[in-house]
Predict the structure.
Amino acid sequence: MPVVRDLRVLLRLRNFRRLLYVRLLSQGADGVYQVALAAYVVFSPEKQTSATAIASAMAVLLLPYSLVGPFAGVLLDRWRRRQVFVYGNALRAALAAATAVLMVAHVPDWLFFASALCVTAVNRFVLAGLSAVLPRVVDAGRLVLANSLSPTAGTLAATAGGGLAFLVRLVVSDSDAAVVLLGAFLYLCAALMSLSLAPALLGPDREAVRPQLRTVLAVTARELFAAVRHLASPRRREAAWALAAMTLMRFCYGALLVLLLMLCRYHLASTPEDGLRLLGLAVAVSGAGFFAAAVVTPWAAGRLGPGWWIVVCAASAAVLEPALGLPFATGPLLVAAFVLGLITQGAKISTDTIVQACVEDGFRGRVFSVYDVLFNVAFVGAAGLAALMLPPDGRSAALVVTVALVYGAVAATMARFALR
């Protein structure tokens, strides 16, 4: 098969393979850390979690990305991106270890969230950098395949990390602190793997500049406006539309995630531990959908074009999401998790490819940082909407229908743009 042949070629590229290892270790650690946070915040037996509490936690952890993200873009286009991977992962290892100490000490929630916020803030630099540097290690002809393999492999690594976290909790007497320490170890391994890449390999092209903080503060707004203008030019209009579509699909995914959390906590399981296991199964099934997207998307995007593949994904979600979600039963929801995993990752692969192909290298760090900001603002907005619409047990037909309508609007708008 051509895809298998190209995949073998990609994996023979030493620098791509090393960058992939960095992604796998880093996002595997993310999966471990996120499961520990979910278990501690949502599924602790002593906590009576509500949709409002989940939305508040997401706001605390994600909204600050709107401030960190732009700085990440400015610095990624100036710093050696390889050094960002080395120091960023090492810093996350130290901060995650501190989070484990806070869990054991039973400190106030605000202090725990502050520690978790620091870990996830550094994550913006690492993930935006991993997306921005792919064209530095892969030729243009295989960029779609690389975007299928690399981010999807990272998502699968995060899923595997979540599964590993469940195993650790079973072995170490449901200890969330032990799980966080495992995540810290994997972050440290990612930092060490980053050292295998040459310092200058990942760019940016121009000579690296190490500005003082005052300088960064002064130029951030100007450079972000430059990146937005870069996207707004007629030659890059496809990238702008793809980013808008993916942002709305991220909004839908966030709303459905809060709904799933509430259903697992209060409707589909009799105990918090059973609910956490069900959530883990749903995440694993969704990970299988991400893997399927990696296989299907290169073929589909190659024949339809990335833009039309986004249309197909959004239209499929508009039809299947209410059909599978409205029964609020375990079986259909697990099927929905697979379908949404495939659809969301398929659209993301296409969006990443469009942005990378349309955006010049000197702007990629900033554009992908704006991409991250849009993602997180949409995710928090979705959590807020879910908090308003969800009843205590999570069953809300109105939310399911609203999400389906958003998917349908994305499909119709992208189809109209592609035809025009």
About this structure: The mean pLDDT is 83. The radius of gyration is 20 Å. The CA atoms of residues 264 and 278 lie 6 Å apart.
